Amino acid sequence: MNDADVSSQIQQMVRFIRQEAEEKANEISVSAEEEFNIEKLQLVEAEKKKIRQDYEKKEKQADVRKKIDYSMQLNASRIKVLQAQDDIVNAMKDQAAKDLLNVSGDEDAYKQLLKDLIVQCLLRLKEPSVLLRCREEDLGLVESILDDAKEEYAGKANVHAPEVAVDTTIFLPPPPTSSDSHGLHCSGGVVLASRDGKIVCENTLDARLDVAFRMKLPVIRRSLFGQVAA
Predict the structure, then answer these.
(1) Cα 45 → chain centroid
(2) 8 A C-beta contact, residue 153 and residue 121
(3) Are the C-beta atoms of residues 119 and 152 closer than 8 Å to each other?
(4) What are 137-167's pLDDT values in tens digits?
């Protein structure tokens, strides 16, 4: 092989090596570009995810605010309805309390009522000896019907007539007046208790009124505000 042939082969080898080096360099460049694009895509996806999470968070906050506003409006409406109910019921109760002021106007009817109230208390207490308290203005009426009340109780309970001591040291409050209808008062009736004070039967007209209204209150509210409350 002459020098020309050797030189030609060397040049071919150089071109081959250079071409191979260029191809490798291109491959490296493409690979780096792909890696850059992947990183860029990941950053874009991360940003999109962050934006989506921020939107969902704000959407949830807005939804919570709407629910709170609705709940507050609903509670305000319910409070108004309940207040209206209470105003009407209290007005009815006040009127009934004022009507009780006239109960003692008919002495015979009131005496019979006192007797019935005493008998009811005796039947509830079922005690052989009790203490009775009444209003000071009712003391004479109570003493006049007490024996009859004890005998009636004894007949109904099939026991001996109990001993009933009327307390003349402490009386029930006086009846209400038009100027002070909400103070401490008693429209009539009696309070009986066992001698040890452990069992008490309050049978005043005011207590009976309270019980009657507590029992009637749900019915009154339903009848007056059934459609609104629903």
Answers:
(1) 50
(2) no
(3) yes
(4) 999 999 999 999 999 999 999 999 999 999 9
Residue 100 tokens, joined: 């009780």
Residue type (1 letter), 143: E
Q: What is the longest distance spanned by two Cα atoms in the chain? A: 161
Please compute the mean of the pLDDT values over residues 70-89 and round it to a whole number. Answer: 72
The larger pLDDT score, comparing residue 66 to residue 191, is at 191
Pairwise CA distance, residues 194 & 15, whole Å: 127
Multiple choice CATH, 106-176+184-225, 2.40.110.10, 3.40.1390.20, 3.40.50.2300, 3.30.2320.30: 3.30.2320.30
Sequence-ordered list of residues with C-beta below 8 angstroms from that of 217, at least 6 positions apart, any chain: 89
Both tokens assigned to 225: 């505000």
| Residue 177 DSSP class | B
Q: Which residue has the higher pLDDT, 220 or 40?
A: 40
* Dist. CA 196–CA 118, nearest whole Å: 19
Q: How far is CA 44 from the centre of its chain?
A: 52
DSSP character string of 8-69? HHHHHHHHHHHHHHHHHHHHHHHHHHHHHHHHHHHHHHHHHHHHHHHHHHHHHHHHHHHHHH
- Tell me the C-alpha distance between 60 and 70, whole Å: 15
Name which of 83, 198, 188 is nearest 130 in CA terms. 198
* Closest to 199 in 3D by CA, of 118, 116, 121: 121
